[in-house]
Design goal:
Blueprint lengths: L23 H16 L5 H13 L3 H8 L19 E7 L4 E3 L4 E2 L2 E7 L3 E4 L4 E2 L3 E9 L2 E5 L4 E17 L12 E17 L5 H7 L5
Parallel strand pairs: 1-4, 2-5, 3-6, 4-7, 5-8, 7-10, 8-10, 9-10
Helix pairs in contact: 1-2, 1-3
């Protein structure tokens, strides 16, 4: 005999239980984990693309589970809880010392810079990336804005207006292509100063290995 159907539409009799449907929040959670893993070098560009496509098209929770099953727990990689992720961070300062974000800081969706004659350093070397795009709205006069990148972090300065300023973009040494984990878009106005985009400085050991040998 077939299972009875209750007034709510749920089956009350024996038989396999239906699979749980995946929500937008479920898919977004897996997408964020995959992007963090790619930024940490755990996934190649091809693997990231394949898994993102599978995550965005998943209909059930069981389809999402295998996409992160072979990745270490987020806490083990030093990431932070989603409660610490912010959409907007405003940095406002006038005539002070260097403003710096470094270490395992959480990258928001947008940063608003309202800074006058203060150096600003945003170091993405060990940053926790939870979004694929960071928009930096620049309102900065004087001094230098420095962005320290890592493989997988690209910076777009096309939307930035410069007044008596210049942009210096120092590229990292050639290496294997990394998936784009974060795209940084600079917009707004930078007056009287510099914008520097560079990779991390080499350690003493790396400097020694790169020195030319002479006979």
């Amino acid at each position: 005999m077939s299972a009875d159907v209750s007034p709510t539409g749920k089956r009350s009799g024996p038989g396999p239980s239906p699979e749980l449907r995946a929500s937008h929040a479920d898919r977004d959670r897996v997408v964020d984990l995959l992007r963090i893993a790619a930024g940490d070098g755990l996934l190649t560009a091809e693997e990231l693309d394949e898994r993102l496509e599978a995550a965005l098209s998943a209909r059930t929770v069981s389809e999402l589970a295998p996409l992160t099953a072979d990745l270490p727990p987020v806490s083990a990689r030093g990431a932070v809880s989603t409660a610490e992720v912010k959409d907007v961070v405003r940095i406002e300062q006038v005539h002070s010392g260097t403003i710096e974000r470094g270490g395992r800081w959480v990258v928001p969706r947008r940063i608003e810079l309202a800074v006058t004659y203060c150096d600003v350093v945003l170091d993405f070397t060990d940053a926790v990336i939870t979004h694929d795009t960071l928009r930096i709205e620049v309102g900065m006069t004087g001094k230098t804005l420095t962005l320290v990148t890592r493989p997988g972090v690209v910076v777009d300065t096309d939307g930035l207006r410069l007044v008596h300023s210049r942009v210096t973009h120092r590229h990292a040494p050639p290496g294997p292509d990394a998936p784009v984990a974060l795209r940084v878009e600079l917009v707004g106005l930078k007056a009287h100063g510099r914008v520097v985009v560079r990779p991390p400085r080499r350690t003493f050991g790396q400097w020694l290995r790169r020195r030319p040998t002479h006979r």
